[in-house]
Structure formats: structure tokens, C-alpha cells
Amino acid sequence: MYELIILGGGPAGYNAAERAAAGGLSTLVIEERALGGVCLNEGCIPTKTLLYSAKIFDYAKHSEDYGVKLPNASIDHAAVVARKDKVVKQLVGGIGMKMKHGGITVVNAHAEIQGRNGDVFTVKAGDETYEGRRLLICTGSSAAVPPIPGLREGVTSGFVKTNREILDMTTVPKELAVIGGGVIGMEMASYFNSIGSKVTVIEMMDHIGGPTDSEIAAILLKNYRKKGVNFMLGAKVTGVGTNSVTCEYEGKTVEVSADCVLCAVGRRANTAGIGLENINVLTERGAIVTNECGRTNIGGVWAAGDVNGKSMLAHTAYREGEAAVNDMIGKKDAVNYDAIPAVIYTNPEVASVGETSDTVKAKGLDAKVESFTLRYSGRYVAENEGGDGIVKIIIDKAHRRVLGVHMIGTYASEIIYGAAMMVEKQMRVEDVRNFVFPHPTVCEVIREGMFGI
């Protein structure tokens, strides 16, 4: 009998397991594939490994702009993929050791909830059955494959890749068609553009970057058009053939040739086949319904991570798992979904937190929006020849609290956590002005910007 059974060993699951074990709960983690989930095995970590290699290659190609001559720079994609596999193996092994040292039992099998008898839940994993007093469902998400003619057949044949398969390709496609201009689509478009593929991004919306602030998204679009990526915005994919993608674009039927297609149109929560119906867990649009501390409609059952469909980011999953465990052990906690940062690891990087100029208009908020060039930063100018990065700050006029911060440029991913704390703590412009930022850094533009609001 376990105090807690966790279904899924991704960011939500393994982090929650550590917190639960530290809190005195005997804990079982059941993971069907590999510890670390999508993030570590086929998402965050492998993509960042590839993108870092691409960034080094980009620097090498343009090194003369900085007075460094590196003739004949080249990239070995197969070697990059091999290094990615090494990084993933090392980190997955590290999680396994943490589970072992933490006294957490890990079972590698598909889990299915069998039912509930009083206060005890029964879960089947492989040929074994386990009992637990609490359940935490962290089964994650999978790539969505919409019912476009030929798309599923393309996945079966290997012509169409999802985020999982494209990371294992050891050859570089001459022509890559990317369906979807969100985070996954843009990051992979960035990588393959850098290493020599002719990339076409087909996006149904009139912008890239999903919910990214429109001004930031426009700068990202301009940068990648300059790099040679072809964008078809407002395009509807109508079919996938054996070496092409057909879409409706600007009132015409257009065929885009490709050696490979990446399907990056979003994620769906993994709620099917895990026995939710056996204990009547409520779902909406395929995701488990939870409150701000992860509780479901069934007592003793929590859910965290992509499976609840709220934020589908690894760092959100970490936080949700922690909040759920804290709730279990009687420690008051809740996730603030208004202060969760998001990053697109393109080159330049995009990072955002809080309200955008678009959402304040939609919500009718009385807000002030100001944009400031990163060229106010000496370090940014020193390291970015011709860079056009900006930081965008949004405050509410009545109280002068920071509602949102958005950046495109160097180190944005490393800076945004500070802005997230400003939003989380509802800091005022005057509060931020009193902070001392290190110099010379890119982040000090945020403080300088506060004097312009």
C-alpha cells in the first residue's frame, strides 16, 4: 500500500515524487516510456541541445562581423544528434538515481486505474496491481495529428514527423515543410534553417508564435524571413502527398514540395486508456479539470502537467506537481497562472510573461504599454551586430503594477524569470526602479525602461 501513486514520470510526476517522498509519503511512480517524459526525451532538452549547436554554427558563419575569421565552418548533423542522445541519457539516468536515493519506487509499464474501494485506489501496471491512498495523474500530452487527408498516412510512412521523430533524423532534408508556426514549429524551423534546409512554415493564423505578443512575433518573423525561411501565414493545409503539402493560400491552391514534413499543430492531453472513467474523473475537451492546487472532482485524486491542459509547459508542470503535493500534506499552495513565463528558443530568443498588448485590449484593461530597444544595453550592442531586439513593459495605470514583460533578443530566456517575479509579486514600477541591476547586462534595459514609463 502506497500513500501516493503517480501516473507518469515526466516533469510533473518525478518532481512531485521527490516532494512527496521528502514530505513523508511512500510513493510509487509508474512511467510507460522513460523518466523525464516528453520534456527530457523528446521536447525541451533535446531541442535545446540541437539549437545550441545551431547557434554555435550561426556564430561561426558570421564570425567575421566580430573580427574573427573562421573559414569553411560546417556542421555535422549526425554528430549533433549523437550528442543530443548522450545528453538525454545522462539526464534521464540522473532522474533515475534521484528516485532511487529518495526511496521512490519506479515501475516501467502502462498504468490504468482499475477503481476505488473506500479510500483505496487500485492501479494496474503491466501484470501487477498496486494500491494507493492518493492518485496524482501526470500522464502528459502527445503531438496532435489533425484529420488532414494524407497526414496520418504520412506519419505511418515516415514522411511526416512529429516532435518525437524529427529529433532522431540523422540526415538533413533539402526541403522541410513545417505545419504550424508555434513554439515547436519555430524552434525546428530555426534549427533546420541554420544547418542548410530550405524551410517553409505553413501557419493557419496571420502570425507566428501562438499567443506571443504581436509586436514581438512580428520582429521574430522579420528576422527569420531575413534568414531565408519562407512563411505562408493564413494558410490552410488541405492535404499531404508523398513529397508535398497542399494548402489554400491567398485564395489559391498551392503545393509546397518537401523531402520531410513536420506536424507541429499543438498537443493533446493523454487521458485515453488510463481508466479515468472507472473513478469518474471529470474532463473537458480531453483534459482533466483541476483547480489551482491540482484537485480534480474526485477526492484523493489530483492531476498536474500537460494532462490538465492549462499551460502545457514543463516549468508549469513542476510547479503544479509541487502545489498538488503540498495540498495533499496540508500545506496551503496554489499556482498563479498569470505569472508563468514562456520562451521560444529561436535565435534571437523570445521570452514572455503576463499580459500582452493584445490581451489588455481584449480584456479592456486600463494599461500602459511601452517598448524599448535593447540597444540601450551596452552589452547587447557589443554582442549583437545589427540586432533589433526590444523589451516591452505593460503596467496598469491605476496602481502602476507590472502586468507583463516581453522580450526578443540575447539572453531573454535567462532574464524572464526576474520579470515573472515582478508580475507574481505585483511589483510597482517604483519598486523595480529601486533594484540594482548588474552592468553591463542586457537585463538592465528592464530597469531603464521603468524610468520611461
Helix content: 25-40%
> What is the terminal-to-terminal distance?
58 Å
Write out the CATH superfamily name of the largest domain: FAD/NAD(P)-binding domain
Radius of gyration: 23 Å
CATH architecture classification name of the largest domain? 3-Layer(bba) Sandwich
Task: Examine the coordinates and then state which fold CATH places here, giving the name of the CATH topology of the largest domain.
Answer: FAD/NAD(P)-binding domain
Unreliably modeled segments: none
* Lateral strand order in the biggest sheet: 3-2-1-7-20
Number of helices: 14
Mean pLDDT: 97
* Overall body shape: globular
Which structural class matches the secondary elements? Answer: alpha/beta
How many beta-strand elements? 25
The largest pleated sheet is described as: 5 strands, parallel
Strand content: 25-35%
Tell me the name of the CATH class of the largest domain: Alpha Beta
* Total tally of structural domains: 3
